[in-house]
Amino acid sequence: MQRHINTDDYPVIASMLRAGYSQVDIAKILGFTKGAISKEIQRNKDKDGVYRAHNARRKAKQRRKESKIRYRKIDNNPEVIKKIENTLSPLISPEVVAHQLGIHHQTIYSWIYRSRHDLLSLLPQRGRKRRRYGSKRAKKQGWTQNVKSIHEKPNITIYWEGDTIKGRTKSRVLTHVEHTSLYTRADLIPDGTADSVHAVLKKKPIKNNIIYDRGSEFALWEMIERDCGIEIFFADPHAPWQRPKNENTNGRLRRVYPKKFDFDTITDRQLQKSVQLMNNTPRKTLNWRTPAEVYESLLSG
């Protein structure tokens, strides 16, 4: 089924262009035609000719916004605006106002969410959006539509769970935890882009399968698979319990580096000192063995 290029695709396109991929390769991986990728790059690249994900997202959003201005029934009609302002209240819903004006109530909702946040408090649910009872979340598109699910993972003993820890600035810590032994590996990365994650794993590969969440920092998973010679699987959306060892380990690291900690203020040597202490501390869940001991026994066994 044909789809539009969306916010999940921008960082992947930018990263693959920087990695030297051709437009044909990018189109094949993302499921678009070469023409669609070429048009996206030409339309949203910067003046210096470089395609940057955050600027492409901003330009596309602005273009969509401007393309609809002249067709909007409320924005271009001061009398309708005044009528809505004078009538809308917590006891008079947009449906009632829309009936009086002869327009669809969703038109009023869209106008308020887009342009008049000061009127949100007058909506029946105070502007809180809720899914209809029994409905499911919209299926994620973009780069995540072709990933391998955690439910496809083979039943193996050694595998890793990975994630990133955010700080106050762009810099982050990329963490990997071996599931059985709790052995931890942590790497400082300059930002949360897929490029940075890929660069670390290309330089220092992990030789066993990995489970990630569906954050955009792992969008170059196919390139990581190629460079490390492994398979990568993804947890279900909004399911952190499917990567419990990694979530627990990140919580332990937060004891040393709390939320809003600036990772630019520490060196890799300081980070590795904390990780080494964790890997060589006996754990009750490991029958008072250390993660390093258990990991070593797994490799030798």
UniProtKB/TrEMBL annotation:
One of its GO terms (biological process) is DNA integration. One of its GO terms (molecular function) is transposase activity. PROSITE patterns: INTEGRASE. GO terms for cellular component: cytosol. InterPro entries: Integrase_cat-core (IPR001584), RNaseH-like_sf (IPR012337), RNaseH_sf (IPR036397), Transposase-Integrase (IPR051917), Transposase_IS30-like (IPR053392). It comes from the Bacteria. Residues 150-299 form the Integrase catalytic domain. NCBIfam families: transpos_IS30 (NF033563). PANTHER family: TRANSPOSASE (PTHR10948), TRANSPOSASE INSI FOR INSERTION SEQUENCE ELEMENT IS30A-RELATED (PTHR10948:SF23). This is Integrase catalytic domain-containing protein.
